[in-house]
Design goal:
Elements (H helix, E strand, L loop, with lengths): L8 E6 L5 H14 L4 E3 L6 E9 L2 E9 L1 E5 L9 E9 L2 E5 L2 E5 L4 E4 L6 E5 L3 E9 H8 L7 E4 L6 H13 L6 H19 L3 H26 L7 H8 L3 H9 L5 H18 L8 H7 L5 H12 L3 H5 L2
Antiparallel strand pairs: 1-3, 2-5, 3-4, 4-11, 5-10, 6-9, 6-11, 7-8, 7-10, 9-12
Helix pairs in contact: 2-4, 3-4, 3-5, 4-5, 6-7, 8-9
Length: 319
């Protein structure tokens, strides 16, 4: 099996610990190296806190930017003939390509290529964003050959767009990219999402929906992990957060041979098991650990724990 280290790399950069007067130099050095092509804006205090992921067949740049211009030109190292999707999660940006400008509000995105020349995303004030880069050759079969504008505004109401931020957050904040195979699958899901956002052909859209369902399930699992301590975490709550129906959530989990309730219960029990074995929680009572992972009934927790692990919580703690 190939190792993820051979196919997945990441790069992080932050100006948080750099004095404002020194930030411009540090940012320009990134640009000169072609790692993160940013230019400080005059009369603005630059703020950069980003992570860049290099997947097999996709690139991700996400984080916070402010007081900078994000540039992409054909001579920028490694840009090649890639296509780009820039999503504003919060804040306001301006996309510029030659004489054309497009304003992006929170939730909007822009689809870009070099067909009409170099382009830039200007972030005068702080913005939370996700940027995706995919090879044209991988996306062209999904988009077809019809003419499209080189710079295309994608409105926040576009169904697939809402999933992009959630999926990127899920795969970059959890051990989803722990293997080369998982990284390749994530890259394929990202390409499917970009294609649907940019207007895939009808045939390609049907084919890509499988990737979108898988991406949505990953995002939901990540959400569950983040909200596990909330005893009121219900399928209706999760469905509302993702803009789908409870029945759709049930169908997604059932496609993996497990119900939503079974999945949440398993996650809570496994987290409790880890906490019981972790010296950091040695002073926590078993009851407090049960409540911390979302159980409201201690006897139910003890019963389900023993059924799952064949031992009581006290047995596991004393191992």
């Amino acid at each position: 099996m190939r190792q993820a280290a051979l196919t997945v790399r990441s790069f992080r950069f932050s100006t948080d610990e750099i004095p404002p007067r020194s930030r411009a130099t540090a940012i320009r050095e990134l640009h000169e190296r072609g790692v993160v092509p940013l230019e400080p804006l005059r009369d603005h205090v630059a703020q950069v806190n980003v992570v860049k992921w290099f997947l097999p067949g996709a690139g991700i740049l996400c984080g916070r930017l402010g007081g900078v211009r994000q540039v992409a030109a054909s001579h920028t190292p490694d840009v090649g003939d890639d296509l780009f999707l820039g999503l504003n999660l919060a804040g306001r940006s301006i996309a510029v390509q030659r004489s054309r400008e497009v304003a992006l509000e929170a939730g909007d995105a822009v689809f870009l290529s070099h067909d009409a020349g170099p382009f830039a995303l200007i972030r005068p004030t702080p913005v939370r964003f996700v940027g995706l880069r995919v090879p044209r050759r991988a996306l062209a079969p999904l988009l077809g050959e019809r003419n499209r504008p080189a710079m295309q505004l994608i409105a926040r109401e576009t169904p697939a767009l809402a999933l992009v931020g959630a999926y990127v957050r899920a795969i970059t904040s959890a051990p989803v990219l722990a293997s080369a195979e998982a990284a390749e699958l994530a890259a394929r899901h990202l390409r499917d999402l970009v294609a649907l956002c940019a207007g895939a052909t009808r045939e390609a859209a049907e084919e890509a929906r499988g990737g979108v369902r898988a991406a949505r399930l990953v995002a939901m699992k990540s959400d569950i992990a983040a909200l596990l301590a909330d005893e009121a975490l219900t399928v209706a709550t999760l469905a509302a957060r993702h803009g789908v129906t409870p029945r759709y959530v049930h169908k997604l989990f059932e496609s993996e041979g497990v119900t939503y309730t079974q999945f949440v219960l398993r996650q809570r029990l496994e987290r409790a098991h880890r906490m019981l074995r972790d010296s950091e929680f040695a002073r926590h009572t078993i009851a407090s650990i049960a409540y911390d992972v979302g159980f409201g009934d201690l006897s139910y927790f003890n019963r389900m724990f023993r059924r799952r692990f064949g031992a009581t919580p006290s047995d596991v703690r004393n191992l």
